[in-house]
Amino acid sequence: MSNENEYLGLIPSIRNRADPVEDERKELESEITRLKNWLKDAEREKSRLRELNRSNEERFSRALTAETLRNQETQVTLQRVYRTTAGYWQSVQDLQEQLKIARTRTPVVIMETVKVGGPECQICVRPYSDCGIRQPKVLICGHTICEECAARLVHDTKIKCPFDRLDTHLNGHGLDVLPKNFAILEVCKPCPMAEKATDTDDLESESDDSHMTLHSILTFSVFFAFFFICYDFLFTIATLF
């Protein structure tokens, strides 16, 4: 009987010891639940970051491809500009060479050509005239032919002299830019139509033509070529930006 009473006396003590264990168990279960929720949130954040990273990689890849294409297009454009510029420089050098040749042909040389050729075109063997298609036109090399024959020799905006094969560039202009050989006209009979001309502007134009020299024509051609080099180059570069 005494032992039973002793056991019954221990029950409250055991009960008091069990309560803290139960409380700790509940706290642990609550912490486990909280950690599970945190883990779920972490998994969702991980998925979001993974998707964001994939999207960024795709955008970067597209941007890199576009930049590569732009660089390739830029290289192609620059190469085209270089080729065009090189072509213009070649034209300028040709004009400068022609100018050098023209400077060596003095009026005395031209007069010698007149003496040999006489007052008639050496191609069609027809007399020169100071108006119309029989006007004597001086080529860059100093040889003189009539305007009609010059028109027949035009090819790709240039005239190849039939005597020395040198090219006279017209640069897109007509035969009016070719100077007249006034030395030949001095020994030719004036055209009746020219004698009857009364228009003051025509007379002034004829007077202006008399002052056109090979040097001025070629100088204009050189400046004309330089202008197109600068304009084409600046326009092409501007399109790159």
Task: Outline the fold blueprint.
Layout: H1 2-104, H2 107-117, E1 136-138, E2 144-146, H3 147-153, E3 154-155, E4 158-160, E5 167-169, H4 182-185, H5 192-195, H6 200-210, H7 214-238
Antiparallel strand pairs: 1-2, 3-4, 4-5
State the main characteristics.
single chain; 3-stranded antiparallel sheet; 68% helix; disordered C terminus; 5 strands; Herpes Virus-1
Between the first and last Cα atoms, what is the distance in angstroms? 108 Å
CATH class value of one domain: Alpha Beta
Percent of residues in beta strands: 5-15%
Helical stretch tally:
7
In round numbers, the mean pLDDT is: 72
Task: Quickly give the CATH architecture of one domain.
Answer: 2-Layer Sandwich
What does this structure look like?
It contains 7 helices and 5 strands. The chain has 241 residues and is mainly α. The chain has a domain at 105-198: 2-Layer Sandwich (Herpes Virus-1), CATH 3.30.40.10. It has a 3-stranded antiparallel beta sheet with strand order 3-4-5. A hairpin with a 5-residue loop joins strand 1 (136-138) and strand 2 (144-146). Helix 1 (2-104) runs antiparallel to helix 7. Residues 121-165 form the RING-type domain. It holds the Pfam family zf-RING_UBOX. Residues 21-59 form a coiled coil.
